[in-house]
Design a protein that fits this description.
CATH topology: Rossmann fold
Shape: globular
Order of helices and strands: EHEHEHEHEHEHE
Number of domains: 1
Strand order of the largest sheet: 3-2-1-4-5-6-7
Strand content: 5-15%
Oligomer: single chain
Helix content: 40-55%
Largest sheet: 7 strands, parallel
CATH superfamily: NAD(P)-binding Rossmann-like Domain
Bound molecules: NADP nicotinamide-adenine-dinucleotide phosphate
Number of helices: 6
Amino acid sequence: MAALARSVLVTGSNRGIGLELVRQLAASPRPPQHIFATCRDPEGPRGKVSAGIGSGMVLSQVDTVNLPSIQGAVWAVKSHLKDQGLNLLINNAGISSHATLRSLDSQEMLDVFATNVVGPLLVVKEFLPLLEQAAKSAGKEGLSCRRAAVINISTKLGSIGLCLGLPEAPMYPYRASKAAQNMVTRCLAAELQDKGILCVAIHPGWVKTDMGTEKAPLTVEHSVRGILTVLASLSQATSGAFLDWEGNSLPW
Ligand SMILES: NC(=O)c1ccc[n+]([C@@H]2O[C@H](COP(=O)([O-])OP(=O)(O)OC[C@H]3O[C@@H](n4cnc5c(N)ncnc54)[C@H](OP(=O)(O)O)[C@@H]3O)[C@@H](O)[C@H]2O)c1
């Protein structure tokens, strides 16, 4: 089987789902030639974990709410890839918030929106020339992660369609931010389709990570194995979709 993509960049890859994504990508039988594992603090103890994973791994500093840091990573990735462009961008970094109607304040809402909505959108904006370059060099090939793609790691907690009854936990900042991120995914899918770039939102399941906690039913290995299988199957027909880690379609 061909590699999922020649080059992949993952945000928030020092722990949780992001770390497992770069670990499984590097360990796959046909690994991507370039894996850009990015995190806020590559020199920190958790950043060093992803540094030791594989030979094709490049560790870069990216704080997704800091524009100069994103632009620095674009420059670093570009100098690695020369004129090949970036095939696959996985917007994984995110934060949660359990604020209730009683406890929330505007700053918390803004912080969660900055990380879960504005950050991923700016990452796409800044990496767009490299994604376009990859899409162009694939000629008239159909949409796929191998050609050029943006994957936004979402959550079914951001689905308005699944939230018609009383939600289990309102989590206003988190759920509203992920619903907004879903709209961003739909708009990107519509705008970038003609440029040859696929965009999809993926719900990873409820996963045992710092965010998901030990109570979650899914291991991070299981979730990421599913996500990578789904990514390999994406095509024109699924661009603009909201899918879970098993490939099931979710309502927006
Ligand atoms: N776990 C679940 O059950 C679950 C369910 C649905 C969706 N998700 C989504 O899956 C994604 C990953 O979640 P996770 O469970 O792996 O969470 P996690 O274990 O809490 O890890 C979050 C990652 O995001 C990074 N991050 C946060 N803010 C950042 C910023 N401004 N710039 C760069 N990196 C930043 C963190 O880096 P630091 O170490 O520097 O903080 C960390 O690497 C998130 O988008 C989350 O919403 C998770």
